[in-house]
Write a structure and sequence with these properties.
Blueprint: E1 5-10, H1 15-24, E2 30-36, E3 58-59, E4 70-73, H2 77-90, E5 93-96, H3 103-112, E6 117-120, H4 126-141, E7 146-153, H5 163-175, H6 180-183, E8 184-185, E9 200-206, E10 212-219, E11 224-231, H7 235-248, E12 254-256, H8 258-263
Parallel strand pairs: 1-2, 1-4, 2-3, 4-5, 5-6, 6-12, 7-9, 8-9
Antiparallel strand pairs: 7-10, 10-11
The structure holds NADPH dihydro-nicotinamide-adenine-dinucleotide phosphate (NDP) and the ligand O=C(O)C1=N[C@H](C(=O)O)C[C@H](O)C1.
Domain Dihydrodipicolinate reductase C-terminal: 127-262
Pfam families: DapB_C, DapB_N
Binding site for NADP(+): 46
């Protein structure tokens, strides 16, 4: 019998942590061995699975972690930085869905690919992977149409625009042989003047319990194409991340993509 992979979750007490733990209940591929939370978290020290005698406990301290095969991180920039330290120190594969990362941590992550297997995605759903492909194609076929990306999320989200919106914008920009750095418009207010040709605009909605919605609007003269993805359940992200973790554990160092996982075994 193949032993289950020893899994650590970074951000285990959060919304995505909860979605991951719910799926793990019924997934023999993994054994949860560490459940990382923030220093000072109210969950620190509590059992992860209430009523189970030998349940792992939430812990802020990675030095308490036993041997781990793969870490799945949905925490935030600070939590990801701590998980990354641990993965680099012990040669552990890392799957991360954390978004809103600043340049210094991006640079550390870029370098980490030389030492560990790393797979990051702004969105682990299958539907958004397909949306990205469709947008790439539509943007290339309709290069002169105006592109606006609208995203909506729950009121507790910490970053904007969402990582997914930025990734969609990047994919479209690439298909048009340009970059987000030169085309993105993140904010419009007051007397903005006319829309700049070739701009990729972003608009952000926050409120209530919206799980995550993204619409790419390609706007021409007399017609408009809209590509929309609506997530209604976080389990779609959790399932994708666990699939990625199963695929990534034991792989060589490097930056792997969700597309590699979807394409199948190598
Ligand atoms: N790629 C994708 O498919 C998706 C990505 N995301 C991204 O995942 C991230 C988390 O989202 P969500 O679950 O909604 O967030 P939550 O705020 O619900 O959860 C965050 C979790 O991270 C923990 N945490 C916070 N700071 C630290 C720290 N310094 N060290 C260790 N752990 C820490 C929190 O612990 P505690 O609260 O106990 O203190 C909590 O468990 C965000 O960046 C979000 O954008 C979300 C959904 C899908
Ligand atoms: O914070 C969230 O909730 C989500 N974040 C991701 C993002 O920033 O794109 C993915 C998903 O839309 C949910």
């Amino acid at each position: 019998m193949i032993r289950p992979l020893r899994l650590a979750i970074s951000g285990a007490s959060g919304r995505m942590g909860h979605a991951l733990l719910t799926l793990l209940d019924d997934d023999a591929r993994f054994e949860l061995v560490h459940a990382a939370v923030a220093p000072g978290s109210v969950h620190d020290g509590r059992p992860v699975f209430a009523g189970i005698a030998d349940s792992p406990r939430y812990a802020h301290d990675w030095s308490q972690a036993p041997q781990v095969d793969v870490v799945v991180d949905f925490s935030g920039p600070a939590g990801l930085a701590l998980a990354l330290d641990h993965c680099l120190a012990h040669g552990i594969a890392l799957v991360s869905g954390t978004t809103g990362i600043e340049a210094a941590l991006e640079a550390r992550l870029a370098d980490a690919g030389k030492h560990i297997a790393l797979l990051r995605a702004a969105n682990f759903s299958l539907g958004v992977a397909v949306l990205t492909r469709l947008l790439r194609e539509a943007s290339a076929v309709l290069p002169a149409w105006d592109l606006e990306i609208v995203e909506a999320h729950h009121g507790r989200k910490q970053d904007a625009p969402s990582g997914t919106a930025l990734a969609l914008g990047r994919a479209a920009a690439e298909a048009r042989q340009t970059t987000l750095e030169t085309t993105a418009v993140y904010c419009r207010e007051g007397r903005t003047g006319e829309r700049v040709g070739g701009a990729i605009g972003f608009a952000v909605v926050r409120g209530g319990d919206i799980v995550g919605e993204h619409t790419a609007m390609l706007i021409g003269q007399g017609e408009r194409l809209e590509l929309t993805h609506r997530a209604t359940d976080r389990s779609i992200f959790a399932r994708g991340a666990l699939q990625a973790a199963h695929w990534l554990a034991g792989r060589s160092a490097g930056h792997w993509q969700l597309e590699d996982v979807i394409a199948g075994p190598r």
